[in-house]
Amino acid sequence: MSSTKISPSDLDHIAKLARIDLTDSEKALFLPQLESVIEYFDILNKVNTDGVEPTFRVNDQSNVFRTDEVKESLPVSDALSGAARTKDNYFVVTATIKK
Amino acid sequence: MDFTKLTITQLRQGLLDKKFTAVEVVNFFLNRIKTIDPAIKAFITITDQIALKQAEIIDEKIKNGKEVGKLAGSIMAVKDIFLTKDILTTASSQVLKNYIPKYSSTIYQKLIDEDAIIIGKTNTDPFAFGGSTENSGFFTTKNPYDLTRIPGGSSGGSAASLAAGLCTFALGTDTGGSIRLPASLCGVSGLKPTYGLNSRYGITSMASSFDCPGVFANSAQDLAILTQITAGIDSHDATSSNNQIPDYASLLDKIDLKGLKIGLPKEYFTDDINKEVKDSVMTAAKVFEKRGATLVEVSLPSTNLGIAVYYILVPSEISANMARYDGIRFGQSIPNSTDIISYYMATRGAFMEPEVKRRIMIGTYALSSGYYDAYYTKAAKVRTLIKKEFTDVLSQVDVILAPVSATTACKIGEKASDPLKMYLSDVYTVCINVAGIPSVAIPCGFDKENLPIGFQLIGNFFEESKILSLAHQYQQVTDFHLQKPKL
């Protein structure tokens, strides 16, 4: 990537993917800010990483298993205690499919 | 009695010797908070009733000759991203403005189990996204040395509360410098442990392969006592380490400075660093030299790539971690949408702070189709190079000594409007997180305006014992860590 330009429609697309409504003034603020940050990332293009493996975690643990034991879980009333909308021990969610 | 001057060990001993009671200690700190905190604004929540109740239980135990925990009498301030059962936990964001968790973070609970007394929850940048507390969804914390300046961040409330003498120690997290930077700018000691030493369970997640909870204290000795308690494997955090935890406090005098090699990375001592900061850090290095250590110039050539790597990988992990804030199970929400996508967008748009949105969007961009390899994979490869440079250098020298920040605390608002400029102030801290190794930040002086300066001692994986020992020996012959602001 070089001399990144983010168009207003790119910004809308990113915001949609991120599930965030932006106001017009936020769009005007964020567009140049994101552009300058992403442009700064170009510094990595100069680095030769041929044959280098990516690092996704810094410790060398792998496959951390535990025994599958039946234990007390969070009581329903506690699990629901932070929810704005509940009904019959369930979370209430806005319709996910059209009627 | 001035309880701010007592160490963890002295506070506990004082209780056992019946020189004072835990209730007296709590009341002393509550009074200080009442007088001093309105100007500093370190705390979001003061847990006065809980603190007094805990103190009464400790006093009762002592009265009845029962055992008390290792931290009995110590007053703890907790960064507000640590979940504390039944105590408001906001993460300094409007998203969680009313969130009362039903379980506690592991390391907080371990400290409580040793009779540490929680005095309150401290301000931070929202979800720890920032380096100044200016991004907080509530207010900006002030530096106790100069109320017009930032305390550093993101754990700024914790560092400021300790510097102002409002607690005995404080909890923070360090994903890219969020313990070391505020420790340095507020003149207190702070440890960013090896990734995985302290459990991340019950702390709002920022970047899961970087996040390191840790402690602030008045001395390396107190840091050692606390880390002894917080460290260790946790079945709730699969990335927590199963390494044996050494007795840090008893090892503080065991490392012989004679013949020890201390690396000074030339990329951390450039002309970009304020001269007073550089001079103070060099003077600190000379303290070790005078006591028999050898100073060696070393090179970490990829240092200038750290910010780019960090601000690609961390927002990428943030964008995934922040997906949980949908206002359904917890958090504020805007309920009157007709479909779920508009509901998510309205809710997240309404309550997330600007820096939260920025970081989620940077991460979403870096992970999005067509850009993934160019940004995310590339940064993950450069991460490998940065990590290797550190482990290579640390096979030639025992520890690395470097400044924490190029400058002392800046004015509130000075960098707030320019995110890139703000990100660049992390240049001397982020690479350590990229590599995953431990680093302790220690006060080493003041500039002409009486603002604190700090340096960091960086060790190889799980070498907390070594860096804490060096920090302790430095503090045996200097008194910068004992100085407090005039308030």
Question: What key phrases describe this protein's structure?
Answer:
heterodimer, A: 99 residues, mainly alpha, Histone, subunit A, two-stranded antiparallel ribbon, 2 strands, 4% strand, B: 487 residues
Provide a brief overview of the structure.
Chain A has 99 residues and is mainly alpha-helical. Chain A is built from 3 helices and 2 strands. Chain A has a two-stranded antiparallel ribbon with strand order 1-2.
Structural overview:
The complex is a heterodimer of chains A (99) and B (487). Chain A is 32% helix and 4% strand. Chain A is mainly α. Chain A has a domain at 1-48: Histone, subunit A (Orthogonal Bundle). Chain A has a two-stranded antiparallel sheet. In chain A, β1 (86-87) and β2 (90-91) form a beta hairpin. The two termini of chain A are 44 Å apart. The mean pLDDT of chain A is 91. With 487 residues, chain B is an alpha/beta fold. Chain B has a domain at 3-259 and 439-482: Amidase signature (AS) enzymes (Alpha-Beta Complex), CATH 3.90.1300.10. Chain B has an 11-stranded mixed beta sheet, with helices on both faces. The longest helix of chain B is centred in the last third of the chain and has 25 residues, at 372-396. Chain B is globular, with a radius of gyration of 21 Å. Chain B starts with 7 loop residues before the first helix and ends in a 10-residue tail after the last helix. The model of chain B has no long low-confidence stretch (mean pLDDT 97). At the A-B interface, α1 and α2 of A face α9, α10, α11, α12 and α13 of B.
CATH architecture call of the domain at 1-48 in chain A:
Orthogonal Bundle
Q: Approximately what portion of the residues of chain B adopt beta-strand conformation?
A: 5-15%
Provide the CATH topology of the domain at 1-48 in chain A.
Histone, subunit A
Alpha plus pi helix count of chain A: 3
Number of β-strand runs of chain B: 11
Treating each run of at least 4 consecutive H or I residues as one helix, how many helices of chain B? 15
CATH superfamily of the domain at 1-48 in chain A: Glu-tRNAGln amidotransferase C subunit, N-terminal domain
- Helix proportion of residues of chain A, in percent? 25-40%
Strand percentage of chain A lies at: under 5%
Largest interface, C-beta within 8 A: A-B, 53 and 73 residues
